[in-house]
Specification:
By secondary structure, this protein is of the alpha/beta class. About 35% of the residues lie in helices and about 25% in strands. The protein starts with a helix and ends with a strand. It comes from Eilatimonas milleporae.
């Protein structure tokens, strides 16, 4: 289904909620129809691209549905990007329309200039609009739509066809890569694959009240929300995540389903015990998490609090495969991200050979969507196996029953003294310490070992001075030595106020590696 069909039977049902405001299915259908007609009025044709860069809000999803129903691609762009980074995505995707919010309008105009200068002459004209007043020259979208008058009503009678998202990977190790699937322009409402998966794995339906506290410009929240709006459920949005507000929203709106990343769990667990204990979460049946590996101790604590309602999956923007695990299975195999669902796993060594159970190698999938990075054949080739399998760049192993355990990103594996060291194992151990709120472990150049292990810790209580920091670093090393082999323990430990994480929870380790590349700036040497 799609919003128009749902509106035909339940026009006044809440499709979207944000704070005290509501958009009904009738309103979502009408606004997206009218905007779709405006796109046609601009000369945008099937297969063209609409880009949007804005915080969570109703306009975001109206724009996405206008593109979806028009046979267009829609490209959500992270709000944290610079105009130069945004301009790269606009040029690479060949966007025909770029829509932003008022706060980002000045940067959007600059990004559009950069994009137009760098893309081919044959690319479509780029129209730029803002959805809110901003004091600049960028035209306001809804004023432009209204100015077209009755002409849009007639244009809206065209038969709607399926478009699709075009998403860019987060680019934690370089330029983001675009993932663009071919469009078949089948009648709107034909897309059922992800809807079926949501029903089977997460028990979603028209009665679902889904909390999306993460930015919609990321793949997981956007796809979950768009799928639920095909089912007739209600989406509860947050403008941005804040732990107490998220807990209050779960209670207030009787949320049945929610989606998280592990850093959100950490912040929720930091709430006062009396606050957590007093929250009525009786309606909350399914809590879905992915985006980054979840430390075992954190997930145990969440299950203890919320009950065995956590569902974890491992997938990516590329859609090449998926694993899934429920709480009961996870408790029997702590740390797993589940078994492959409608796809197959392959663990591969450096020579491309397939490994057996409990042998660590690169994680590949078969049976999912074909991998094809937009305008990047060399990146597609680097992530593809001769057998037709594809990888997202993670390392891991499967047990005898086929459950996958991730060890780390291949790019983050540390080779110290000729031995592979996987940072995630060290990070998980550090997070068990009472004074560690977050941590990142990575390799730095070392004349003796090739690479040395360095840990950057975001402490719950920052050491008062250099001497206290040195003592705390030694204490952390002693803590680790009781849990890890000596060669895995950090050679250097440093402290910071906040680690650089994306909204998805992914660490931007390339930034840390650059910051600590200088051998004279590596924190406290602890061994």
């Amino acid at each position: 289904m799609y919003p128009d069909q749902i509106a035909a039977s339940t026009p006044d049902k809440a499709a979207l909620r944000l704070d005290d405001a509501v958009v009904t299915y009738a309103e979502l259908a009408e606004r997206s129809r009218r905007l779709a007609a405006f796109f046609r009025h601009l000369g945008v044709r099937r297969g063209d691209v609409v880009a949007l860069q804005m915080m969570n809000g109703f306009d975001f999803l109206v724009i996405a549905w206008a593109a979806q129903r028009s046979g267009l691609y829609y490209v959500p762009i992270a709000t944290r990007l610079t105009p130069e980074e945004t301009g790269y995505i606009l040029a690479d995707s060949a966007a025909a329309v770029f829509i932003t919010d008022g706060e980002r309008a000045p940067g959007a105009a600059e990004a559009a200039v950069i994009a137009v200068k760098s893309r081919p002459a044959a690319a479509p004209h780029l129209s730029v609009y803002a959805v809110a007043a901003h004091g600049g020259e960028t035209p306001l979208l809804w004023s432009a739509v209204d100015a077209c008058g009755p002409a849009l009503d007639n244009a809206a009678l065209h038969d709607p066809v399926e478009g699709g998202d075009m998403l860019y990977t987060s680019g934690t190790t370089g330029r983001p890569k675009g993932v663009r699937r071919p469009l078949d322009f089948v009648p709107l409402g034909s897309e059922a694959r992800r809807v079926e998966r949501a029903r089977i794995l997460f028990d979603m339906d028209a009665e679902t009240v889904f909390l999306s506290s993460a930015p919609l410009y990321h793949a997981a929240p956007l796809r979950f929300v768009m799928n639920l709006l095909r089912m007739g459920g209600t989406v509860v949005l947050m403008r941005k995540f804040e732990a107490r507000a998220a807990l209050d929203t779960l209670v207030r709106h009787r949320v049945t389903h929610s989606q998280w990343v592990p850093t959100m769990f950490v912040r929720m667990l930091d709430l006062p015990p009396e606050t957590r204990k007093g929250a009525d979460l009786s309606a909350h049946r399914v809590a879905i998490h992915a985006g980054a590996p979840c430390p075992v101790a954190v997930k145990r604590a969440m299950i203890d609090w919320w009950g065995p309602i956590l569902h974890e999956y491992y997938a990516g923007t590329e859609s090449i495969g998926l694993t899934h695990v429920r709480s009961a299975e996870w408790l029997q195999r702590p740390g797993t991200v589940g078994k492959a669902w409608r796809s197959a796993l392959h663990i591969v060594d450096e020579d491309g050979g397939e490994l057996g159970p409990r042998q660590v190698g690169a994680v590949y999938f078969s049976g999912g969507a074909p991998l094809n990075y937009h305008n990047a054949p060399e990146k597609t080739a680097a992530a593809s196996h001769a057998a037709g399998w594809a990888t997202m760049g993670d390392m891991g192993y499967v047990d005898e029953e086929g459950y996958l355990f991730l060890t780390d990103r291949k790019a983050f594996t540390i080779i110290s003294g000729g031995v592979n060291v996987y940072p995630k194992e060290i990070e998980d151990a550090l997070l068990l310490h009472a004074n560690v709120a977050d941590t990142a472990v990575f390799g730095v150049p070392d004349d003796d070992l090739g690479e040395a292990v360095l840990a950057v810790v975001e402490p719950r209580a920052m050491p008062a001075d250099t001497n206290a920091a040195r003592i705390e670093a030694e204490s952390l090393l002693a803590f680790l030595r009781g849990r890890l082999a000596g060669f895995k323990c950090p050679k250097f430990i440093d402290f910071c106020d906040t680690l650089p994480r994306l909204d998805t929870g992914k660490l931007e380790k390339h930034k840390l590696r650059a910051a600590y590349a200088d051998s004279g700036k590596r924190g406290h040497r602890v061994r």
